Amino acid sequence: MANGLSFMKMHGLGNDFVVLDLRDSDRQMTPGLARAIGDRHCGVGFDQLAILSRSGDGATARLVFYNADGSTSAACGNATRCIARHLMDESGAAEAILTTERGQLFARDAGNGLTSVNMGQPQLDWRDVPLASALDTLELPIEGTPVATGMGNPHCTFFVEDAEGVDLETRGAEIEHHPLFPERTNVQFASLVGRDHLRMRVWERGVGVTLASGSSSCATAVAAARRGLTGRRVTIDLDGGRIEIDWRDDGVWMTGPTTHVFTGRLMPEWLEAHS
Fold first, then answer.
1. What is the mean pLDDT of residues 24-31?
2. How far does CA 209 lie from the centroid of its chain?
3. What is the CATH number that goes with domain 147-249?
4. Which of 73, 113, 170, 199 sits at 20 to 30 Å (Cα–Cα) from 90?
């Protein structure tokens, strides 16, 4: 506490994160401290907070994620990609394995400044998403007949004529808390703009409107392929930029850019006030 706490600010296509490297620390995160760090006026601000610790299971590191409201999330694709890039740069390796609540995720250098992460197999059964009752995840009984997909966190994907025309703040907040989703849900609105090419906008559970979301991109690609709208390899244009998703036999691969914006330090007095 006396020296404060170092952090990294990163983003993947505008989906921004604070990363705390606690591999050599015994500090414990609390929901209250996570919310304080996530405050964009009085803290640092983030879409997700990622805690980096030693894995103890042979992986490169372990990740735990917090949303801006202090709740936890089992998966955060863009943060995983950014941290994998950091760890590979740190070690000089071309690969990294990250342990998350989702399981072990494999990452690799994709060249040209891009990083790929295998986000694992999608969860397509209603129990695994999870939903509140036994339903066909391909066509939910919600206006717009969205698709439900689990990627370690729940997703609800609507295919619409024009994703740009959706009132994302109103519809996203409404669907996040829909009674069919006992753990709340991330919400996506996607339009087909070309062959295997989607335009997608995201409302993130516990956060709100975000410029991008890795797990949402994976869920949307899976939903589009299941609906027969696209093949299993797609390009998705988000508010923050472009990401490539490839649903393979071994899992859903996500490839995109990463940015380490700056490294800073939370001051001891501020930490004391929020601990």
1. 92
2. 13
3. 3.10.310.10
4. 73
